[in-house]
Structures are given as C-alpha cells and as structure tokens.
Amino acid sequence: MMTNNELLAALPALLPKAIGWAEAMEKDILARGQPLTARMVTVARIVGVGRPEDVRILEVDRIPMPENEELRQAAMVTGLFNPDITGMTFGHGIVICKGHWTTRLVSHELRHVHQYEAAGSVAAFLPVYLHQVAVHGYHDAPLERDARGHETTVS
After folding, report:
1. Could you tell me which residues come within 8 angstroms of residue 57 by beta carbon, excluding any fewer than 6 positions away?
2. What is the pTM of this model?
3. pLDDT at position 2, please?
C-alpha cells in the first residue's frame, strides 16, 4: 500500500492518468445524467455554481473506480474511495449512489462543481485538489472543508 509521501512523489506521473479518467467520467455523466431540477438549480446558485444548466447528475449503484491500478491504489490511500463516499464530482458531472440522494450531499457536490468552474477545467482543478488530499488527507483537504462548509439541507 502506498504511503502519503509516496503518493506525493508519484503524483506528477499519476496526474495525466487521473485527469484522463476524470474527463472521461465527466463526458459519460454529461451524456447519461439528468439535468438539475428547478430546486437543485436554486441550491447550485446558492453554493456558487455559475452554470447550473450544464450540470448533470447520474445515479449509480456504486462510485466507479479507475481501472488503472496505480490510480485505484492512490485513491484508496487518500480516502477518496471508502465506504462512506456516496457522491463524486467530475467537472459538471456528478455521480450519486442510489438511495443517497439528499440536498446536503448534492449541495456538497455542487460546491465541487463551483470549484471546478473557478479552476477553469478538470485539468486545472485536479492537480490542486489531489495535492491537497495527499498532503492533508481527504477529510482535511481545504477544498473538501470548503465543500462541507457549503452543505445545506434548505432548498
């Protein structure tokens, strides 16, 4: 199992694979996902999403893991993939595990959409996000803390 220090060292080589996987995930979600409801558009605007009309949400049985073994291992080390993860964002695409759709979870993931928009692209966002997760751990990464700070149950 890879340590956080080993992950930091491996990150430059892993980034192109992670970006490619995330961009492919976004493309698939945008093609197959559902647009936001009017209520969720309101939530998206509250948490800072600039283009809520571009967001799509795809319900899945489980969060898809990368096929690449190195990416899977890195995701496990950082806590990106653990039994408590029920949603994940890729640009304007969000996956939510069936049975876990809540305003709180969607607002958290929509804040990540805002973060992607602020960065400008998947390729610009992921290096910052993954570095934070490698240094601070998933739970304490500044972008995760920001997303938790924008969770809401009010729509």
Report:
1. 29, 33, 34, 36, 40, 93, 94, 95, 96, 106, 109
2. 0.94
3. 66
User: Letter for the amino acid at 105?
Assistant: L
Q: Output the pLDDT for position 70.
A: 87
What are the residues whose beta carbons fall under 8 Å from the beta carbon of 20, sequence distance 6 or more?
Answer: none
Instruction: Name every residue whose Cβ is closer than 8 Å to that of residue 149 and which is 6 or more positions away in sequence.
Output: none
Which residues have CB under 8 Å from 5's CB, separation 6+? none
What are 77-88's pLDDT values in tens digits? 777 887 788 999
| Residue the block writes with tokens 């990540």 | 112
| Alpha-carbon dihedral sign for residues 22, 130, 81, 58 | negative
> What local confidence, expressed as pLDDT, does residue 47 receive?
97
Would residue 42 be called left, alpha or beta, if left means φ above 0 and alpha means ψ between -120 and 50 degrees? alpha
DSSP bridge pairs for 58: 95
CB 19 within 8 A of CB 123: yes
Buried-exposed string 61-90: b where 16+ CB fall within 10 A, e elsewhere: eebbebeeeebebbbebbbbbeeeebbbbb
Q: Which residue has the tokens 């934070």?
A: 132
State how far the Cα of 112 lies from the Cα of 81, in Å rounded to an integer: 16
